[in-house]
Amino acid sequence: NPYVLIHDAVRPFVSHDDLNLLLDTLDESDDGALLAVPVADTLKLANDNQAVKITYPRDNLWRAFTPQAFRLNKISSALENVIKNDLEITDDSSAMELMGARPKLVPGDVQNIKITTPQDLILAEKLIKVNK
Question: What span, in angstroms and rounded, lies between the C-alpha atoms of 69 and 49?
């Protein structure tokens, strides 16, 4: 069964080392794998007035990155389930999780940033200069 890697075009700094780790992990996991980074900042849930409602312990929290890798037949079924049942997901791993899968988290490089804001673009330009 072939693999598929799903990647955000707005993450141009994924490294070869991260890709190799991801593929190695995928060989060991039927549920897929995704690049991720442990959360370093404290996370707080706000109420409607933007006051702190809950502070989450960060011990087991990770920031999900891409690429995310799955066996083609499994991610296809998971995404069909999302469409058929009009479910909301924020990434492809979420679709797998809704099917009972537990994709493996693969520690990735924090430089694999997502460029979605003007500030992100400034950071990306700095990364390009530093990594020349």
Answer: 38
